[in-house]
Each structure stands twice: as structure tokens, then as C-alpha cells.
Amino acid sequence: MHNPRCIRWIFLGLTVLLYPAVSSAAESLNSRIDQFITEGYGKFKQEVSPRSDDAEFLRRIYLDLLGRIPSTAEARAFLEDRHPRKRERLIDRLLAKPEHARHLQQVFDVLFLERRADEKVPRAAWEEFLLQSLAANKPYDQLVRELLSTDGADPKTRPAAKFLLERNLEPVLLTRDISRIFLGRNLQCAQCHDHPLVDDYKQEDFYSIQAFYNRAFLYPNAQTATAVIAEKAEGEVSFVSAFDPKKTQKSSPPRVLMGRSFKDPKVEKGKEYKVAPAKDVKPIPAVSRFAKLAPAITGSDNPAFARTAVNRIWAQLMGRGLIHPLDFDHSGNPPSHPQLLEMLAEEFEAKQFDVRWLIREITLSESYQRSSECKSGTLSPDHLDRYLVANLKPLSPEQLAYSTLQATGFTDTVKASLGAEVAEPVLHGKLAPNATPIIRIFAALPGEPQDGFASTLDQTLFVKHNGSVRNLLNAQPNNLLDRCLKMPDNSAATEEIFLAVLTRYPTAAERAAIVHYLTSSKERSVAFSDVIWSLLASNEFRFNH
């Protein structure tokens, strides 16, 4: 029986709690995840989608762990594998690949920098810092501490300072981004007054975070590409509510949300600095508020840090946060599964913020491996926030770019030219220049989060007419079109195209339609190219499902 959803995808493209009593700490995290999700089904239990088939799972796991779709050889090997634990074995193989660290580097780069310009730290140095950190599975809290504490003075550690330096240490911007990215709270609307709609977001919260770095500045100045972070010995944060008719001045010591306040110890007059300010001399205060920022954000007395981290990783894999939107954590927007979120945060911290372990456990869960096909045929909010089905996730610009290179066989051509045992950095260096034009056209604006899916006219025109995409369809040694032209059987060629682009075999109806089109076409090469392009332009390719 053919799958109606597959036909729909193709022709769109062709037309342009407390732990449960039965739970135990000895149980795997993925089993406990499924228990909490199952408890949340409630009256919608009959709407739960079945387990994804092997092809659907294969494409999803490659995109989520490597940032690209599998090659036809990788697809056939998995689909023909009869081992009962082949999914678990594949997850472990992919997590061990250098490509996995590269994918995480791209994910965290976008999360931390939001595609800002490279003015203070070269991109190559920043990417290498992230790549090495993630390849070594550096604990997430350690990584964030380095981002929030490095002053950029030491060339060896300067790349870690990029988070602060590329924002020019601008206090309002830093407060907004630190609270949003690491605390799950967008406090921007609490800058001038208590948030008008969210009781939990207070103006004092905004300025108490800002108080950690209000004394810091870029030395010698913000316009210098080699600027480093320096700090004055004094300076308080003061603020006035826009709603206060008396315009009462208030101040706040450094504090993160409901955590403890940091009060400066008394310093003897004349000893405010370890290194006093002077011409061409970077000052070093005796008491540094800036040095307290990173441990205050990542410390165990700030539960929002682990909670936000696991919510972001969960959303990356599951298509939706347990708290959604991701930067709107407050009592009026509770988690869909509060006990699950609490457990994930506690386990993540207990495992020393091991990102790879958390990814493995989530992807091993049945909740992750559900089909994205809705039983009733109509998705509702209950399907999404109860995880009755696998949520559709638009491919990130990076996933789209590298999957396009893989689907068209450009990656295979490059691999063949470099040799079978080519190292990942070498292969990436050859692929990146061809991925960049695609990434650039689909990326969010600098300084904006890469959230959701919004197709633009420029993107549509790019896919239809841009030379860099069209050139990928031309026959080159070992690429998809070249392989198809060497196949006398149009049915076999159709299967090759579907495996290469959509990571599945065509249905009988799809196979018949494509074979008929190929057979009736005068120019076989042009016909193949049109079929490949139509699948690349389809919604099925554009989404992770």
C-alpha cells in the first residue's frame, strides 16, 4: 500500500510528577523519558503515532546527529541490516564520528553568535575552539564558563571571548542575550519596567545581571579589532521604572534571578586596583564583578541554567521545547511535562553536563523515534506539545546546504577525488565553499535567533534559478546524475534518486510516474536533472520528519 503522505510531499515538490512509582534510578534515561511522555497522552492515547519505519528514522537520525542526510550506500546498508538493535548501534556509530562534533559546532555557533560578523575574533579560530571543545565532549557548563569569563588577552584562549567581544560588551545586548540563551528568559521587555505581561520578569532581574559587567569595558576601545576586556574598580547599576511617576532611583548588586546577591568586600582606599589605570596599561581591579558572572550563571544554585540547556537540546531533537517558546520560561507558561524537565535537568547536571550522553538518551527513546505521520490526518496543538507524533522540523541552513551536497552526489565526487580515507577536516574544507551560498540565503539576519521556518522570495528564486544549485545537478564523476545516466533501467535509476534525495524507496505510484516521465522524455539527462531538482525543491526534502 502506498503512503498518501509521501505522494503529497512529492507532488508539492513537483509543482513547485515526581518520578513514576515504577521508575528507578537504575533504569535508562530513555526509558524514563518514555514513561513521562506516555503519562502525558491522557485521552489522546489512541492518537499516538506508531514507531517510525527504518527509512524515516534513518533520515532523521543522520540530520540530527551529523547535520546531513545519508548517502545511498549508508542508506542501503542500514535498510538491509537485520540486526535487532541496529538503531542503537547506528546512533553510537554516528555519535563517534568527527562529523557529529562538526554538526554540534555549527549548532552551537548559531546559538551563541547568531551569525554576527567576525570583527574581533577570526571565524576560523572560533570554529576550531568550538570544534575541539565538542569533539572532546567538554562539559556544557565548562564551555559556557569559558565563553563568559575569558577576557581575550591570551591569544591561546581568545577565541572563547568571541561571545562577549562580538557584542562589544554592550550591557543591554549582553543582558538580553545571556538571559535568553542561558537562562531561558527574554528580559528585554523588563529593561525599562517590570514586564507588563509576565509577572516573573522584573526590572531588577535585568539590572542585577547587568551589574556583573557594568564596570567592564573594551580596552583600549571598542573600535580596536584586538580589544580585550578590562574592568574598573567602581560603578553601580541604577535604574528607574518608566511606570514610576516619582522616578525613584534604584540599584541592584550582581545577582542571577533568585540566586544570591554578590556584595563587594570593603577595599582599603588607594588599593582599589591590582594594576592601576595608566596610559597604555590595562587596569585590573582588586575586586572583580566580571569574574563572578560565569560561576553565577552556571553554578548549581542557579537551576535555570541546566533547565534551559536541556530544554534547548530537547527542542533541537524533538522539534519543540518542553518549555515553548524556548526563551519564555515563567510560571504563566509552564512546561508541557514539568517532571520530565526537572528529571532531565537533574540528570544532566549529575552527568557533569555531558551533551553527548543526553543526545544519545533522547534519540534512543521511543518518543523520539515516533513517526511524523498523524493518525487522524490533522495535526492539533495536542499532537505537538504531547509528542503524539514526531514534530516536523525545518532543516537549518547548514543541514539544507550539506544535505543538498550529499543528495546531488557532490560530496561523493569530492570524496572520490580525495581518496576513501579522507580526514573530516579536509573533506569539510572542500565542501564548505559550496555550502556557504546556500547557508547565506537561508540564514537568519545577524543577531537574530534561527527560529522556525519562513520561506522568502529570495529563497524560492535561489532554489529555482541560482547557478550554484543548478551546477550541482550537472553530471560529474560519481555524482547522482552521472550514476543515473549509467543505469539503463529507469526503474533502478528512480530508486537511486529517491534513496539519494529522500532516503527512502519510491512507492509504486511514484516509481510508475517517474519511469513514465523518463521514458517519454527526449533528453534523458535533462529529464533526470528535472526529477532530481523537483525532489530537492519538495517539502519532504526541506523538512526533517
TrEMBL record:
Q: Which residues form the DUF1549 domain?
A: 32-215
**Assigned keywords, A-Z:** Signal
Q: What organism is the protein native to?
A: Telmatocola sphagniphila
Give start and end of each DUF1553 domain: 292-412
Task: Kindly provide the name given to this protein in its UniProt entry.
Answer: DUF1549 domain-containing protein
Q: Which domain of life is it from?
A: Bacteria
Signal sequence extent: 1-25
Query: For this UniProt entry, which segments traverse the membrane?
Result: none
Question: Which Pfam families is this protein grouped with?
Answer: PSCyt2, PSD1
